[in-house]
Amino acid sequence: MVDPTSDLGEDVDESDAPACANCDEPILQSPTHRVVTWVEDGAVRHRHFCSEECREEFGE
C-alpha cells in the first residue's frame, strides 16, 4: 500500500491505493479522502474513508 502521507493524486495504481473502510472502494485522486488515526496498544492505527459520509456511516 502507498504511504498514507504521500501525494495520492499522482502515479498511484488502483491495486496500490488505499480502500475505503466503509464501502471498500479504492481511493484515487479524491479531494474528499479522510484518514482517521488513533493509538492502540502503543501502535499507531489508521483507516481510510473515501468521504465524510462513509466515515460517519462506518459508525466507530
TrEMBL record:
Species, as recorded: Halogeometricum luteum
Organism superkingdom: Archaea
Listed name of the protein: Small CPxCG-related zinc finger protein
InterPro entries assigned: DUF7576 (IPR055998)
Location of the region described as Disordered in the Swiss-Prot/TrEMBL record: 1-24
A Pfam family that the UniProt record links to this protein: DUF7576
